[in-house]
Amino acid sequence: MRVQPLTESLWLEAHGDADSFMAHGGGMAIALGTLLAVLSAVANGTFTIFSKTGAVRRARVDPVVFNLWACVGIVLSSLLTLVMYKFVWSYMGLISGLLFVLSASNSYRAVRLIGVSVGTGIWCGTAVLVSFVAGLVFDPNGALKSKLWALVAIIIIMIGIVGVAYAGHVGRVAAGHEENLDTLLQHPVTGEQRSGTFSTGVFTAIFAGLAGGLIMIPLTRASAEAQGIPYLPSFAIGVAIFAPIVTAIPYVTRVDREMPNLAPAAAALPGIVSGIVWNIGNVFSILAIGYISYSIAYPM
């Protein structure tokens, strides 16, 4: 069932009259939706920094293992919503859960390969473009009054993200402590080779953005009862199912079949906190979608 964003409902009530739309709270709805989207962007742009803590570095925690702990944080924080909302099952949550696990595991790996500033810039830029296009194609509320100007805005945002990432990279090189000094160029894990590390990191970050930009598209296709915050428990179930599978794949495919070192002392707390931070951003994003639609809220 199609659930209209608040701004669209107000616009229809105003019969397309801008003054009436603003008088009935349209401007406030846009402002609040935009604020929520910006807060979501802050959380989504910073959740991976916890994988660079001293304890995690010293323990050389595998990115897929750190991702597993982050998924624990996602599941725990998502299930907390059952205190205020009744459980509403949606199989769409399984798809969102799989997309998150794939995106996050590659995000952490990209950070390990090419650093936070470069990795974040690449996957955020990719996610912006993917979520914008996916919102127009798949979201029933994705119709925009001016697709051209919306596309221009997205391009400007992407240029800004790339600029910030490049500036951060150059700044750290100039300061003599570029993050790559502690990436897989020096400390390979899970059989990672030194050669081609940067290009591998770039492709990993791009894949993270491809999956990340689609995470909440299934939400737009869920039943009306499951949309919004009630969607989180179903999403958590999807994460809980696919996180162990994604974690195990790199190890079961190795010749020595070495079991992963979960490193709970070093990775549990920062990993869980990382997942919670991402999910806080996810909540902001879901709320923003309710105000200004997926194709506008998620790319921000």
From TrEMBL:
Keyword Transmembrane helix tagged: yes
GO molecular function, one term: carbohydrate transmembrane transporter activity
Signal peptide: none
Membrane topology of this protein: Multi-pass membrane protein
Annotated transmembrane regions: 20-43, 64-82, 88-106, 113-136, 148-167, 198-219, 231-253, 265-294
Keyword line: Membrane, Transmembrane, Transmembrane helix
Primary location class: membrane
Cellular location(s): Membrane
GO cellular component, one term: membrane
Protein family membership: Belongs to the TMEM144 family.
Protein's UniProt name: Uncharacterized protein
Protein source organism: Marchantia polymorpha (Common liverwort)
